[in-house]
Every structure is written in C-alpha cells, then in structure tokens.
Amino acid sequence: MKLKNKLLMATVLLCVHELGWSQIKVGYVQSERIRSEYEEFRVAENELQLEFRKAQFEFQTMSDRLDSLRAAFETQRLMSSPEWKREREQEIAGLERQVQDFQLRKVGPEGELYQRQLQMETEIIQKVQRAVSKVAIDRGFDYILDSVSLLYAKPTHNLTDDVLYELRKADE
Q1: Would you say 35 and 148 are in contact if contact means Cβ atoms under 8 Å apart?
Q2: Domain segments of the chain: what residues?
Q3: What is the pTM of this model?
Q4: What's phi and psi for 144, nearest 5 deg?
Q5: pLDDT digits (tens, 9 = 90+) for 78-95
Q6: Which fold has domain 2-171?
Q7: What is the CA radius of gyration of the chain?
Q8: Neighbour count for residue 54 (Cβ, 10 Å)
Q9: Residue 43 pLDDT > 70, yes or no?
C-alpha cells in the first residue's frame, strides 16, 4: 500500500510540475492524527474492543467447557459403557461444531465483528472525506494528500486542524 501511495504522490507531483506550481494549490492532512484525535474514531474503537473482549470471553468459556468434557471423557472412557462413550463423543462433537460456528459467526472474515468494524470505519471515513472536501473547497485547494507518504511538506499546508474542526462542527 505504501508503494501505491508513493506512486500516486509521484504522479500528482509530476502533473503539478507539468501544469505549473502557481496554478495548483496542494495541502495535506495527517490521517493518523485525525484517527487519534477525532472522538468518533476513539468511541468506535472502544466499542469494537469491548465487543471483541466479550466474544473472546464467550469463546474461551466454550473452549474451557470443551476441554473439560474431553478430559472427563478420557479419564472415564475405559470404565464406561459403549452407550455412555457414544453420548459423550456426540456431545464433544456437537460442542466442537458450536465453537467453530461461533468463531466463524463472530470473528471470521464474514463474521459479525468484522462486518461491524467495516461498517463503522466506512461511516467515519465518509465523514472525514466530506470534511476534507469542505476544507479543500473553502480554502481553494486543488489536491489534499495524506501525510503518510509525504517526505516533506510545509507546515502551512497542513490542513489537519481544519479537518478536525469541520468534523467536530458537523457532530454538533
């Protein structure tokens, strides 16, 4: 991804050079700073962490129960009836399926937590994009870059504070 950013930056700079510096106004934002200072990002991250811890606790509880059933089965297997063994094996197999299903349903690539994270990030990124666009239009910038791939930029072209202001103003 960084290579992609660098190629994009080089292309933009080449275009800027070809068109002439006096005609184009370029600014930048520090997306990591926006992520750390914008309250909605922090709240979303805390909510996701809480949901992840709850899922992790539930998973651990199920896994502990499965381990306990397996251990009990192993210690009593030799002295038990075939029917008891079959019932315990079915119980263990059912719980194994439950654990796998839970894991896929909650944290798998299509899981609830992944989908929730994607939804929250998409909503926040759209807000950030609107704020960046508003600042760019209001201040007459032609391009706004992310500082992640910048090697140098004048601090006067840093629009991060303006974007954070727009985000906070939009939340009121």
Answers
A1: no
A2: 2-171
A3: 0.67
A4: -125, 120
A5: 888 889 889 999 999 999
A6: Protein Binding, DinI Protein; Chain A (3.30.910)
A7: 27
A8: 12
A9: yes
